[in-house]
Amino acid sequence: MRPSLPVEVFAVAEQKWVAGTLFFGIAEHNLEHYEQKWLPELLKRRRETPKLLKAGHEIAAVEDAHWDWAKKMLREHRAPLGFRSCAVEVEGETEGLMQVELATHRSRANKNLNLAYVDYISIAPWNRPWPGQLKRFKGVGSILLREAIRTSMDEGFRGRIGLHSLPGALTWYRDTLRMKAFGADQDYQGLHYFEFTEEQAERFMDEK
Amino acid sequence: MSKRTMTLNLSPAEMDAIEELCEKKQLTKTALLRQCLRLYQVIEARIDAGEKIFFEDKKKAKSELMLL
Amino acid sequence: MKFMKTGTPPTREWLMKAVELEADCDISAGPVLPVVEVSCPASAALVEVKREKVHEAFSILMRQLRLEQNLTVEELAHQIEVEPEQLHRIERHVGFKPPPRTLHRLADWHRLPVKAVIQMAGGVKRMNRSLEESVLCFAAKSESFERLNSDEKRLLNEFVQCLREQEE
Asked: Chains touching chain B at 3 or more Cβ pairs under 8 angstroms?
């Protein structure tokens, strides 16, 4: 049995909260869901993107259809202390996946300090914005990010986290969460790098 | 899984090194040792998988870290 | 499981605030692969992960069985007439594939079915499914300690019994 925490997510169409579970560790069926349910939808959206852009919709390209979850799980298996992965499930379906790296990343705000690096965070395609479609659930991404911060706190990193945002998620990390921005990282496919400082992390976690 | 406790026998120099690193990294001794172990495991796993480790100086010259 | 979390779940109030903040944003982060189609399916990794776990279980099993008999590696190597270095490498779990003769000797000595031992040691690509399940269950619960406590002994005995029941 994987350890877990009960969580709730907001079902947009039904306008109600539904029970879900945050599982620690990514299981075989999570990868199967990614492969059999997420991927076909992600690839379909990728194909539809040029047409929708032409029609004037403001959408970001579907960039994470090619994440190599296979490789990610293998490296975690080989060095389990270096990683923490988790999955959010609702009614048996995988709604979000995340892998955090703990061994090798340092804070760019203070080079002496370690942080929890969010190597990959992704939610099911039906929970993302898309023209003509309501998101199925809201809250999955926040639950995962909260878990990354909690992991950082557990490991003595005081809530510090870092991540490379995909272009489609820039608004959230830069404008909504106002994470400390370090600009485009030329060593990392030009993706923008962000950090939560200890104080920002604490504010994000604040239950009040 | 329950946590286990281990007694370490370290020389004064080794203890000093731990104290210094704890201060520099702002970590408790337990957190520091867990971090060391984590880093050690990640490096070993990558070496076992046939990868090499390099250091790069300011002029971008690479030198391989030889793990014999 | 490598760790146990003891944190508290987010409150409804926190979630309401988070959902409001999320609005219509996406949250994906991480590097992208510059390929058009996925070349390696996620399930391929599972096969590899399982193979490594089975191999690890084999190392633990060999070590535990030797410890149960109060033998050193050298003593056991002498008894079954193989090089001690081979047994060291098997027990250290370094992805070592032992020669068939060593596996036969080990199977005979520990009274285990040769076929199961060869499968665990990575000698065949496809493993009998029921054997794989028992091996993965044993691997998940066992660790490589100097001495076995009563629970670990019970687990070991149950696993050995299950192996012996495998068809030859």
From this structure: A, C
CA-nearest residue to B45 within chain C is: C94
**pLDDT recorded at residue A118:** 95
**Which residue ranges make up each domain of chain B?**
12-64
Check if B6 contacts C (Cβ < 8 Å): no
The Cα–Cα gap between B43 and A136 comes to: 41
Q: At B13, is the secondary structure helix, strand, or coil?
A: helix
Mean pLDDT of chain C: 78
Distance CA A167, CA A158 (A): 27
Count Cβ–Cβ pairs < 8 Å, chain A vs chain B: 50
Task: Please check whether residue C5 lies inside any domain of the structure.
Answer: no
Question: CB of C15 within 8 Å of any CB in chain A?
Answer: yes
- Find chains touching chain A: ≥3 CB pairs under 8 Å: B, C
Q: Could you say which of 3.90.1150.10, 3.40.630.30, 3.30.420.40, 3.40.190.10 is the CATH number of the domain covering A4-205? A: 3.40.630.30
Q: Which residue of B has its CA nearest to C94?
A: B48
C107 occurs within a structural domain: yes
Instruction: List the one residue out of C101, C83, C89 whose CA is nearest residue C63.
Output: C89
ipTM beyond cut 0.90? no
Which residue type occupies A18? V
Model confidence at C168: pLDDT above 60? no
Question: How deeply is C85 buried, as exposed, middle or buried, from its count of CB atoms within 10 A (0-12, 13-18, 19+)?
Answer: exposed
* Residue-number span of the structural domain to which C151 is assigned: 44-164
Residue C38 domain-assigned? Answer: no
CATH of residue C72's domain is 1.10.260.40
State which residue of chain A sits closest to B1, comparing Cα positions: A3
Q: Decide if pLDDT at C98 tops 90.
A: no
Predicted local distance difference test score (pLDDT) of residue C32: 62
Mean pLDDT of the A94-100 span: 95
Give B1 to chain C, closest Cα distance, Å: 6
Q: Is the pTM of this model over 0.90?
A: no
Question: How many structural domains is chain C composed of?
Answer: 1
Q: Would you list the DSSP string of A20-57?
A: EEEEES--HHHHHHIIIIIHHHHHHHHHHHHHHHHTT-
The answer to whether A83 faces chain C, any CB pair under 8 Å, is: no
List pLDDT tens digits, range A115-161.
999 999 999 999 988 888 889 999 999 999 999 999 999 999 999 99
| Chain C partners within 8 Å of A207 (Cβ) | 10-11, 13-14
